[in-house]
Design a protein that fits this description.
This protein is of the alpha+beta class. Helix content is 47%, strand content 15%. It is built from 15 helices and 11 strands. A hairpin with a 2-residue loop joins strand 8 (309-318) and strand 9 (321-331).
Length: 482
Amino acid sequence: MGLRLRVFLFFALLGLGSAAAIATGAWFAAGRTEAGDALPALVQAALLAGVLVLVLVTWVWLLFDAHVARAVETLAHGLRARAHAAEDAELDAEAARYLGDLAPAAAEVAQGLAITRSALAQATARETARLSVEKARLDALLADLPVAVLVCTAEHRLVLYNARALALLGAVPAPGLDRSLLDTLEEGPLAAAYRQLLAAADPEAACGFRCTATGSGRHLAARMRLLRESEWDGAASAPPYALVLLDAGRDDSAGPALLPATAGGALAYDFDLLARPYAPALAATRLEALTCVVFDTETTGLAPSADAIVQIAAVRVVNGRVVEGETFETLVDPCRPIPAGSTAVHGITDAMVAGAPPVAEAAARFHRFADGAVLVAHNAPFDMEFLRRTEAAIGARFDHPVLDTVLLSAAVFGQREDHSLDALARRLGVVIPEGARHTAMGDAVATAEAFLRLAAILRGRGLDTFGDVLAEMRRHGRVLRG
């Protein structure tokens, strides 16, 4: 039970106990009253006294709830946000002005935490500055290698890929961190090579084989090697592996051919994924282990039954961070005029969506991008209703697990607070760049940052798993209904 509920129950018990005491006293006195005409007056006096006691207790409870219980919760929410969400803004002690020295003391603690965090950040920046150049050089080297390089877990989930891998596999959606490589590469030869290396039990052994990229149909020459135990921490049940791919051409007898040079490269990796255990069920998966797609839509209006999508954008969150480069963004042709009032909000005009994909095509592409992920949105029922209207057209269901940052905000900060995206961003210190608000990508990025900070606060409250958070979120469903 929350603090305010405990306080309410305390005063309710006090009021009912007082009324019961008055009634008991009146009954005891009535039993010893000889004059019968005094009994009605005694009952009336007892009833009046009971009502007055209940009114007094209710009035004191309302004052206590407003100035003590609610103030304590507000102070606790502010401290927790600063402790777990890297929010360094000055704590507003005005709401807790009736708590004596507690509010100023809490403000001093928050200020001290901000100073310590700033000093630590500066020290960390100084210590890592000398490594940044070397890391940038290594990233550029790996990104622009003339071969596709991938590192995968024993479950064939991607831990590292470079630009050549994106170009060579040519799948839709593109490979991404924590995605299954089996979505883009023929499973049989890959699994056979892995089993062969496991049986060999030789850390220096490598296995060459041929396979096909399922997205592009390209024939590939591959070389697999298991990672040595020194290259990973051994927490997984089976060793991960590194994979090098070359384009073998259409003729399987041809030797491997290098890909032509590309302008610019991309490299994505998260080696913490090698040590992350996979939960047997989603409900038991820890928050930081969730793979999420945080998305937003812009529409022609606010009625899902009558309006249409004009823009969809999303980012992927893997292992507790937004993955740079793994994004989805498209304008959508609503096949109807966009009202001027809607254009005034999101800035999208009829001319901008001319030639954009229709909603069925855009929704199908987004469905592939979000495959296997938890969907996260701000006021998710609104966006999900628009997406679910496309299910018949795309032949697939948007049956993903869903988290809503409105309800997560209510769970963290209480239902009486403002839970708009702007208010949530202010409370959590999320900066939305000028011009990005009410664009699908701008709102998706802001929601992702807010989600990560809310998740940190929830973990601090002991809500560690998806099941824990989902149960807590459902307790606050009336925030959306209201």
